[in-house]
């Protein structure tokens, strides 16, 4: 059993307003999966990973998104909030 199962998992913005290119790509991938745009996520992954790795990575990220949704996280709203915050910090 994981230690956080008995208490809610809280997410908060990072105190740093700048992110690296790698972090931006990962956030974009999570956003795409959260918004149901697996095709765009796969296209991005195809630029980053070996061809035979794209499917398993996409499957794992999709499954993680599904589990977060099943756990009660509103993934589209979280993705939209991240995009709103990104725009407001420019």
Description:
- With 90 residues, this protein is mainly alpha-helical.
- It has one domain (20-88).
- The chain contains four helices and no strands.
- It has helices at residues 21-34, 38-48, 51-70, 75-88.
- Helix 1 runs antiparallel to helix 2 (38-48), helix 1 runs antiparallel to helix 4 (75-88) and helix 2 (38-48) crosses helix 3 (51-70).
List the helices and strands and how they pair.
Layout: H1 21-34, H2 38-48, H3 51-70, H4 75-88
Helix pairs in contact: 1-2, 1-4, 2-3
Shape field:
globular
Largest pleated sheet: none
β-sheet strand percentage: under 5%
- Structural classification: mainly alpha
Number of strands: 0
The average pLDDT value, as a whole number, equals 83
> How widely separated are the two ends?
41 Å
Integer-rounded radius of gyration: 14 Å
Number of domains: 1
* Uncertain regions spanning at least 5 consecutive residues: 85-90
**Count of discrete alpha- or pi-helical segments spanning 4 or more residues:** 4
Give the SSE string: HHHH
Helix amount: 55-70%
Multimeric state: single chain
Keywords for this entry:
disordered C terminus, mainly alpha, 66% helix, 90 residues
Tell me briefly what this model is:
By secondary structure, this protein is mainly α.
